[in-house]
Amino acid sequence: MKQNIILIVILIGLFVFGLLIYDFSDALDDVLYDSSWYIYEDGKLNKMDFKDNEFSYVNVDSGKVLDNYKSCHTFRYNRSINVIKLNCNINENKIYVSSFDKNSLVMQINGVEKTYYSSKEEANKFEFIKNNGLTKEEYDKLVDIDFTKYSSIIPAEFDTLLNSKETNYVAAVNSNVNYANISNYVALDKFISEAKKNVLLLNVSNITKEDAKNLHSKSDYFSADVSEYITNEINVYMIGNKKIKFVTKLDFKDLKSAKEFNVEE
């Protein structure tokens, strides 16, 4: 009798467990539902969405659905086993959710673990980290630049520098440092260490309309449009003796090429 009761309890437990495993009627977590999820695959930026209870997986640049997922439009979710089941007949129709927060989503698709990010910026950042052989900590340290270590001028001092008998290099920089321009700062450090003249930084991140107008009046190298100053490349000029000469543009996409940059004067 006791054994029969135990057997019945086990069978009920198995039945309930089976229901949980095969019940794909749960609502997706808001964090997953509300965000678009970005990932680089084979050098291309793709985006996965679960919005409005519809599934899409597209290439960001072309807007085209990835070939393997052309027949996948809707999905179901089982919270107890963290599985998203796509309503389509492909090998990758079960997506196993390993972990997620507001910034990243880790999933296993067809046995391969992939990390997605909630913005293009985050995806770009981690692609840069991967391609340059960095850790997250190394990257954070690299972009945390102490601008007080550089000699610098402000736009109001430009006229004095231009009229000086001494010539100096001036590098126009954007102090918002990230994956898109950190390689240029690595090249700039090399330029400063090897240059035979003083190198001054002109921070144009918060340049005013009046500053831009004044710079443009001195040379066509400088735009009168404030928005054109916020770029990732670093332009270097030689300024003094009432002359402005363009020297070089620092525009590198990876750390290796920035470190191999040859300084020519």
Low-confidence stretches: 4-22
So, the CATH homologous superfamily of the largest domain? Glutaredoxin
Radius of gyration from the alpha-carbon trace, in angstroms: 28 Å
Largest sheet, spatial ordering of strands: 4-5-6-7-8
As an assembly, this protein is: single chain
CATH level 1 name of the largest domain: Alpha Beta
| Total helical segments | 8
Helix content: 25-40%
What is the CATH T-level topology of the largest domain? Glutaredoxin
**What average pLDDT do the residues reach?**
90
Q: How many strand segments?
A: 13
Task: Tell me the series of helices and strands, N- to C-terminal.
Answer: HHEEEEEEEEHHEHEHEHEEH
Describe the structure.
The protein has 265 residues and is an alpha+beta fold. It has 2 domains: 100 residues, Lipocalin (Beta Barrel); 118 residues, Glutaredoxin (3-Layer(aba) Sandwich), CATH 3.40.30.10. It is built from 8 helices and 13 strands. It has a 5-stranded antiparallel β-sheet with strand order 4-5-6-7-8.
Put the structure in a nutshell.
This protein is an alpha+beta fold.
Descriptive tags:
Glutaredoxin, 2 domains, 5-stranded antiparallel beta sheet, Lipocalin, about 30% helix, alpha+beta, about 260 residues, single chain
Please describe the topology of this protein:
Layout: H1 2-22, H2 30-34, E1 36-41, E2 44-49, E3 56-59, E4 75-78, E5 83-86, E6 94-100, E7 104-109, E8 112-117, H3 120-131, H4 136-143, E9 152-153, H5 158-163, E10 168-173, H6 182-194, E11 199-203, H7 209-218, E12 234-240, E13 243-250, H8 255-259
Parallel strand pairs: 9-11, 10-11
Antiparallel strand pairs: 1-2, 2-3, 4-5, 5-6, 6-7, 7-8, 10-12, 12-13
